[in-house]
Amino acid sequence: MGAPGSGKGTQAQRLVKQFSIPQISTGDILRKHRSEGTELGKRADAIMAKGLLVDDATMLEIIRDRVTQADAQDGFILDGFPRTQPQAEGLAALMTELGTPLDAVVLFEVGDEELVRRISGRRTCSLCNKVFNIYTAPPSSPATDCVEGSSEHQLFQRKDDEEATVKERLRVYEEKTQPVVSYYSGTGLLRTVSAEGALDEITQRLLAALAEAVAPAPSRAASPKKSSAKKKPASKKVAARKRVVRRAKPKAKTRARAGRRAARKTAAKRVAPKRKAAKRARVPARKVARKSVRRPRRGK
Ligand code: AMP
């Protein structure tokens, strides 16, 4: 998460290389629809041009469709989603349904002045789709990282990176997306990363935040020594829990056995006078006993 221009897309592309999982950028998906002229693309075009947000139901549908594709089964990086509280809640429900909880939510923090500089300098290559910044991260020339056969990137400025739209996007971010930051802060998933400075430094900070987020709970926010010392009580707890579970079974059995024993005693008491009567009537006592002392069925 982060304001427009905070560098989410650039850093997400670096994570793709690091973890070999896809970047799912809702902005990119919408732009693709727009360039292909689909129904959704046509609808989104006007909304995007104004710097507003596409409706939540549509965005959730896009995400459901994308995260269930084969290449996303080992994980994915969401970029630009969720942007509203209903999107965040819809995502939580979807992740629960699919059994793939989020590992972390990273918030990129950048000062306002820097944001404007970044957005106004942002350019995208129409050939390889890489994002550059003519002030802070210009492309190499000649290009060594564009599509095969191209020695120069073909840069263009996104229409919604123009000044008037940028202002509206920043306003919308404050209004709709800031509450999502509070929402994730409450879930304990949120990691805040300072996204100013050299790109490599930001990547290092991002990787450190992610490593912390996926570390086992006892070692979080602790030095390695302390964390290993903290692990012991945790495993003891687990062992104790297992013991409790194991103890629970014999207890239940014992209760059942005691119940059966008591039932037999009561039945035997009932039979005793009958035995005497049988003796008197010269009927073999065993027959009477066998008939009367019926063992209660297990579990009853
Ligand atoms: P981005 O490239 O992430 O800055 O997205 C560009 C534009 O696409 C935004 O200004 C919105 O109009 C639209 N968009 C992207 N992601 C979302 C989303 N999660 N919810 C609603 N609209 C979105």
Description of the structure:
- With 300 residues, the chain is mainly alpha-helical.
- The chain has 2 domains: 8-121 and 157-214, Rossmann fold (3-Layer(aba) Sandwich); 236-292, no CATH class.
- 59% of the residues lie in helices and 8% in strands.
- The protein is built from 10 helices and 7 strands.
- The chain has helices at residues 8-19, 26-36, 39-49, 56-67, 85-98, 112-121, 163-187, 199-214, 224-280, 285-292; strands at residues 23-25, 77-79, 105-109, 122-125, 131-133, 155-156, 190-194.
- The strands form 3 sheets. A 3-stranded antiparallel β-sheet has the order 5-4-6. A two-stranded parallel ribbon has the order 1-2. A two-stranded parallel ribbon has the order 3-7.
- The longest helix is centred in the last third of the chain and has 57 residues, at 224-280.
- It binds adenosine monophosphate.
- The site of adenosine monophosphate has 17 residues, from helix 2 and helix 3.
- Adenosine monophosphate binds next to helix 2 and helix 3.
